[in-house]
Design goal:
The complex is a heterodimer of chains A (about 120) and B (about 110).
Chain A: E1 3-6, E2 10-12, E3 18-25, E4 33-39, E5 45-51, E6 58-60, E7 68-73, E8 78-83, E9 92-99, E10 106-109, E11 113-117
Parallel strand pairs in A: 2-11
Antiparallel strand pairs in A: 1-3, 3-8, 4-5, 4-9, 5-6, 7-8, 9-10, 9-11
Chain B: E1 4-7, E2 10-13, E3 19-29, E4 34-39, E5 46-50, E6 54-55, E7 63-76, E8 86-93, E9 96-99, E10 103-107
Parallel strand pairs in B: 2-10
Antiparallel strand pairs in B: 1-3, 3-7, 4-5, 4-8, 5-6, 8-9, 8-10
The chains are: A mainly beta (about 120), B mainly beta (about 110).
């Protein structure tokens, strides 16, 4: 069964960093780009960036370019997103998702990790 | 960055009615890279349509997509109770992905 399993929620203070994980199973981890997409409460979807699990290459949305780092550990089929210098506006559900390289569509989604920024 | 604008923001319809959702791009989008998603409360989005008009696996044929260039449409021919949700369009271009702001289809 194809799954992307994300860790539980996080509560962080403004200015801190958060690290969110996404473990893949049931498919070839290095065969698909792994993206992060966030959704603030009651808002729409916002693309954060992707990592190529095979090469480690990354590409980030300009909005997050200087604050986000995507990494992966192919030995445990897990991808990570670190977001630094958190503000209240970073409170959101962070989803990991995979795309294919033919239609660039988001085929599989994790269940999401709620990151709450609160003092 | 290509901006996707969806309209209307909210669509109030009754079960059995037809829903027509619009997605307009700020510049031309390759039809191959235009997709639609459905999201229900508390759930991750689900892929409905890719390549502007191809249904994803398991998606009922009451869902259809059309369009090209800067104007795309998602049509739900006869709304079922489970279709009331938020719908997003998404495009890929120049190594960047963007989503529309969503259209909520609610029960009238």
């Amino acid at each position: 069964q194809v799954q992307l399993v994300q860790a539980g929620g996080e509560v962080k203070k403004p200015g801190a960093s958060v690290n969110v994980s996404c473990q893949a199973s049931g498919y070839r981890f290095i065969g698909y780009y792994l993206h992060w997409v966030r959704q603030a409460p009651g808002q729409g979807l916002e693309w954060v960036g992707w990592i190529n699990p095979n090469t480690g290459d990354t590409n980030y949305s300009q909005k997050f370019q200087d604050r986000v780092t995507l990494t992966r550990d192919t030995s445990i089929n897990t991808a990570y997103m670190e977001l630094s210098r958190l503000t209240y506006d970073d409170t959101a559900i962070y989803y990991c998702a995979t795309t294919d390289i033919v239609y660039y569509r988001f085929v599989r989604w994790g269940q999401g990790t709620l990151v709450t920024v609160s003092s | 960055e290509i901006v996707l604008t969806q309209s209307p923001g909210t669509l109030s319809l009754s079960p059995g009615e037809r829903a027509t959702l619009s997605c307009r791009a700020s510049q031309s989008v390759s039809s191959s890279f235009l997709a639609w998603y459905q999201q229900k409360p508390g759930q991750a989005p689900r892929l409905l349509i890719y390549g502007a008009s191809s249904r994803a696996t398991g998606i009922p044929d009451r869902f259809s997509g059309s369009g090209s260039g800067t104007d795309f449409t998602l049509t739900i021919t006869r709304l079922e109770p489970e279709d009331f949700a938020v719908y997003y369009c998404q495009q890929y271009g120049k190594s960047s992905w963007t989503f529309g702001q969503g259209t909520k289809v609610e029960i009238k």
